[in-house]
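Support reply, case 0932

Customer input (verbatim):
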Amino acid sequence: MTAKEQLQELRRLDAEINNKIKELEQLRQRAVGVGGFDYSKDRVVSSPSGDALPDMVSRILTLDEQINDMIDELADKRREAYQMICRLDSEAEQDVLYWRYIRGQSWRRVAEEMNISVRQAHYKHGDALAHLEDKI
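Our regenerated output:
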């Protein structure tokens, strides 16, 4: 795996965690509404499958555990990536990789943090990745 692929994995994993957190929020909202009864309909026979709440709670707990595991994995990968980035000699190259991958910032935000243009950030990024490949 190249240095760029390792760093991109951080952004991918972070996005996946955010998606799962949104899914968890939706499940929790649905769980609050589970169990309501529609009194406008006639109830003739009770259904044994009416226990949606325990299933929903189980799904919530499972998803919450998955998210926590993914967060732990991301923290470990960030530590490894930070150590890898610190091998670079140029502080500017370290900064561009730090802001882009460790902090997960947009190119515009990276450029603002470094007081350079977005184009310069892209150039420094390319140089940093090339130098990082030489180091690993």
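We compared this against your earlier run and they match. Two observations from our side: The chain has a mean pLDDT of 88. Helices lie at 3-33, 52-85, 91-102, 107-114, 118-135. Please reopen the case if you see a mismatch on your end.
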